[in-house]
Amino acid sequence: MVAIPAGFSPEEYLRLEEQALTRHEFRCGLVYAMAGGSANHNRITINLLTAFNLHFTDDRCQFFSGDVKLNYAERFYYYPDAFVTCDPRDREDSYIKRYPTLIAEVMSPSTSEFDRGSKFEDYRCLASLEEYVLISQEVQRVEVFSRGVEGWSSRMSALGEQVRFDSLGLEVAMGDLYRGTDVLA
Q1: What is the Cβ-side half-sphere exposure of residue 70, based on CA atoms within 13 angstroms?
Q2: CA 139 from centroid of its chain's CA atoms
Q3: Per-residue pLDDT tens digits for 90-124
Q4: Residue span of the structural domain in which 149 resides
Q5: What is the model's pTM?
Q6: How many domains does the chain have?
Q7: Domain containing 168 — which CATH number?
Q8: Are residues 12 and 44 in the same domain?
Q9: Alpha carbon of 24 to those of 1, 75, 79, 94, 110: distances in Å?
Q10: How far apart are CA 177 and CA 46, in angstroms?
Q11: For the segment 56-83, what is each residue's pLDDT rounded down to a tens digit?
Q12: Radius of gyration of the chain (CA)
């Protein structure tokens, strides 16, 4: 990720983003242009969103793709690959959400370290967040971090297993998540 060389306030970032032809993320005063994703990245995201769509039979929860911003105070504005919010306060703004239950990122070699490190640190600031999901696009592997009374714990799912999203009461077969990709076991 390469930052645009200037310090930005959240308000300046939002004005920039309204006029931008490409999406940018904001973190602690720096603005980063977002790179395009691979075919595997796109397909995995679509498969995950399809599972969410089939799971939610009422309007209590909403799910979003990487086109809707997620915000925490003045610290960050990110475009997660997929996220779910069940908080009615998130219905007030069509462009920015603040109370996610689950966030999922499809990792690439260039984003893996950031997704596991600084971005996860930022997401942990969100009191509503119950699960953070990291999906590999190099091998069939999904890591789900869950918030509990003792802090955060993780569990890994691999080829042939079900991925459990406890916060949503949902299980997705690994084969369904990676359907249509060339990602190997």
Answers
A1: 27
A2: 19
A3: 999 999 999 999 999 999 888 899 999 999 999 99
A4: 37-177
A5: 0.90
A6: 2
A7: 3.90.1570.10
A8: no
A9: 10, 14, 8, 18, 16
A10: 9
A11: 988 899 999 988 999 999 889 999 999 9
A12: 16
